Amino acid sequence: MQDYKKVPSIFGIFNPAILITEDTLRENDSTLKYIFLHELSHYKRLDLVFNYILVLVLSIHWFNPVVWVLFNKVRQDIELGADELATKRLDKNQRKEYGMTLINLIKNCTKENYTASILCISDNEKNLERRILMIKYKIFSIFSKGKTVAVLCDRFLYSFKIYFSGSRYFQ
User: What pLDDT score does 45 carry?
Assistant: First the structure.
């Protein structure tokens, strides 16, 4: 239980916990089911580790606008991957309920401060529409996880190149 974040999220690598408010616990059972499905999908996909790597890369390259754009794009892909796993075995009506749950939760997310929103759903209106359409028609990229890993590896290696550029190994 916590009151800092208005939107449920999962936090921690070694002892992960789902952060949830009392107001969210008062929701109906199907809403809670979809919330836990989504958050446990992040856990199963190891998105928490990717998120910490993203934040590390961003903290090293905070001055680079390309890294900020990639950070947002990768975070959106992480959310799509969690949606894909969460809706894998849901029928059409259940996917509709899941989408409505997302819409209702994102209304709360827009009211968050920056520190809380770095852990939150990184959605704007356009990406939310994209997520809902993908949930509705079950059109998920089979390469979304691979693309995320490739971008992270590329950015990580690039950060080492910049860091060691003064070294004799890169001359």
Answer: 94
